[in-house]
Amino acid sequence: MAATEDGFVVAGHTHEEGSSEQDAIAVRVDGEGTEQWRRTFNANPDTTDTMRAVSVDPEGRYVFAGWTSRFQDAWIARLTPDQSIDWAKRYGPGDHNRLHGIIPASEGGYVAVGETDDTDDNTVGWAVKLDDEATQVFSQQFKKRSDTATNPYDDYNVFYDVAETRNGFVAVGANAFDPATNDRRGWALEININGGKLWDKRIVSDTYTVLHSVTAGNLEYFAAGETATNGNGDGARGFATNLGIDGVTKWQNSYGSGSSEFSAFHLADEDGMVCVGSAADSAGGTTAGWSVKVGGAEVDAATPSPTPSPTPSPTASDDSTPTFTPTPTDEPGGTDATGGETATAAPTPTATQSGGSGTETPGGDGGSGATTTGGGGGGGGLSPAVVGVGAVIVALGSAGVLYNRFLGDDEDAAGSDGGAGGAPPDDTGGDDGSDGGGSGGDTAGGVETSEPDTEGTEQVQAAQTVVEGSGDDAGEAAGGDAAPDSVAETESDAGDGSESADAGDTDGESESADASDDESSE
């Protein structure tokens, strides 16, 4: 989904019931969710097509990225504001090509990221830049260096999202030594405007860690995804992290319990992350929509009202029966008309939630039987079965949960608590350096230098050298690299043989053919 001036555009795919053929679809809605138009389109008749990313460029045009079953190619299309197709082209340096993220570049054109395969039939991270007319400017492939001599590079590498930085572009995703294993390690990599690598880092929390979304802040980057015991979703939690301009981890936390994940986030004011995803009691269970805000400005809470204290009843000093005198009042209901005790008006609702025999206080220590979300970046919050569906749980602190909102109805509240109980934060200072995949941490006090494949500017060169002090290895312990040269880069330039052949095939796709396909599809 991408925001427009007065609404949103949503991308995906659609197909007729019982049909194996599938078309890409774009839907435009206003700020209230009312549909304004929809458009289906395909790469070719009788193909299975999907779009997995959409962005809006400065001219108001919609650019989509995904893939098609035609030659297993990646596919990018651009629609004008009136839904006509500017161009739609296929790209494929390998035999299996997919694009998961795309953004417009500030200097013009677009950058998309995803995955392809190399000559060894391994999955490699892929970044491609196009000019305004969809001609490739560069096409680069990346794989992470492993620490095994018999297999020096990870066999599985993929990018899911990309954001623009002051030096180029940062992509996030995951890699694994062997794609058949049930583990993943989060991965972030920055390239310059020519596609040359500046740095890359592993970001690891649990055995299975994947980064789905990234946004550039002020000389820093934020990313979100999921971390779990394994790829089946057991013990999965939403995961968020903050990286410095050189990729060093500033903080990382996990949120929720059961089986929870963040699929995307928006960077709000003061660097607060509004993360969205899904949550369930257990892997494979019924899921509910889930949103958590971490970091940034504190959420305004209602001013606590004092707990009303009833007026004590008089106690008789002898065997006589006490007599009660009604107290006149201008407010209706101010006096118990039947006698017994003076009634007090109902208190103003406060942000304090009652749970069990205790009381949850925002940012407090909690009480007996209550779950407290700490201000230091703790777990995901309470079950809606405890506080009620749609409850907002408030806490304070940098990178701590500021609110935890569950979306669902009363009937399935018990089966979709999202973040019940909460998980402790992943303390970057207390990690043992294990990344679940055999990689070690960076050496404290060392100097890491990553040389780009193409010559960059003075600013780019300055960003390539990272000097780490003694305080840095706590932050890197959870997500450090095996060695200073921990990334190998395999280039697939637009000018090589495979690309030129593909470009020729791609260019053979005429715009008129696409347009006719689209109209017939509609």
From TrEMBL:
Residues 298-377, 408-522 are annotated as: Disordered. Residues 355-377, 435-444 have a biased composition (Gly residues). Residues 314-354 have a biased composition (Low complexity). Coiled coil: none annotated. Residues 502-522 have a biased composition (Acidic residues). This is PGF-CTERM sorting domain-containing protein.
